[in-house]
User: Which sequence fits this backbone?
């Protein structure tokens, strides 16, 4: 394993008292690439991570105090949402896309299904301001946080003074999300020589490398790019993907290629959540009009057997990034 970054012990002044914070690191396997996020230039900080964790689970970020980031990104679903095809927001409104899973974000260079943001510290602005999601604004969030004595103390512990700004809110949220590293699945144990695939899993792995690995490249199981998935456009959503951001015709129906890790926890699948089972996804790719994959029903079963080795139960049930309680941590 290697360390993404080790933060030198920091000294934060609170009045005349000094608190030494422990070093912070994200740990990932040697066969992972170097993170895209520059952790040395922007090191992780214990207090900021815990502040971001509190903010992530707090409904104070939404206009009516009913929706948090975790409402659509549950830790028990690898920070995705399985109850609904599309995201749900304030006043029981329904969004336009399925909530993507959140993990291994330190390796991402774009965020959201359409790649609307390229900076993890800016991407929360989209759900915060979306009228059918949080329906708020960063200015309103700052105002509400300033009214909280608990948050004034938390920001003081994290940043050295009690000043609450939009930049600091977004920085803290990013710090927490960068710690969400999933690298403990059976696949990873096999790569480390600690486990072996079953016969069916190995068959599925071979098929995966033949037909799927270009887009869903190991070991992150995404190449970070965009592709057409061959789905017919839902006429109620009229979602044309990346073109809605760039206005370029060549970007029509391009969607960000998701990681295939933790699929057991992140259904439904595709950008609009139209498929609830992996079998439906593979059948779609085997029968789509453009470049169908020549995989039989039995081969689809083998691929699914391999995909299940990407489930990281330890990550999903890791209490260190779960709900923090009422300012208990």
Assistant:
């Amino acid at each position: 394993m290697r360390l993404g970054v080790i933060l030198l012990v920091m000294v934060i002044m609170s009045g005349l008292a000094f608190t030494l914070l422990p070093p912070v690191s994200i740990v990932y396997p040697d066969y992972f690439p170097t993170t895209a996020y520059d952790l040395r230039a922007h090191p992780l900080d214990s207090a900021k991570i815990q502040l971001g964790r509190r903010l992530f689970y707090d409904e104070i970020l939404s206009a009516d105090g009913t929706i948090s980031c975790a409402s659509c990104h549950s830790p028990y679903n690898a920070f995705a949402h399985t109850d609904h095809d599309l995201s749900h927001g304030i006043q029981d409104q329904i969004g336009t896309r399925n909530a993507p899973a959140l993990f291994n974000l330190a390796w991402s260079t774009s965020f959201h299904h359409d790649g609307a943001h390229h900076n993890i510290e800016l991407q929360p602005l989209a759900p915060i301001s979306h009228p059918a999601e949080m329906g708020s604004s960063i200015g309103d969030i700052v105002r509400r946080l300033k009214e909280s004595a608990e948050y004034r103390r938390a920001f003081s512990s994290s940043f050295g003074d009690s000043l609450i700004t939009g930049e600091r809110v977004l920085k803290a949220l990013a710090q927490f999300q960068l710690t969400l590293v999933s690298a403990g699945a059976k696949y990873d144990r096999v790569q480390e020589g600690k486990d072996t695939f079953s016969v069916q899993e190995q068959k599925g792995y071979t098929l995966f490398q033949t037909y799927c690995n270009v887009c869903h490249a190991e070991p992150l199981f995404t190449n970070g790019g965009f592709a057409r998935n061959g789905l017919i456009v839902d006429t109620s959503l009229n979602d044309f993907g990346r073109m809605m951001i760039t206005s370029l015709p060549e970007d029509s129906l391009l969607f960000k290629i998701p990681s295939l890790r933790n699929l057991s926890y992140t259904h439904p699948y595709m950008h609009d959540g139209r498929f609830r089972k992996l079998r439906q996804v593979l059948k779609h790719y085997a029968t789509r009009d453009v470049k169908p994959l020549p995989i039989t029903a039995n081969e689809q079963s083998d691929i699914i057997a391999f995909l299940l080795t990407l489930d990281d139960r330890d990550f999903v049930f890791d209490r260190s990034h779960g709900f923090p309680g009422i300012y208990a941590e």
Remarks:
- Confidence is low (pLDDT under 50) at residues 5-20.
- The chain has two domains: 2-181, 186-313.
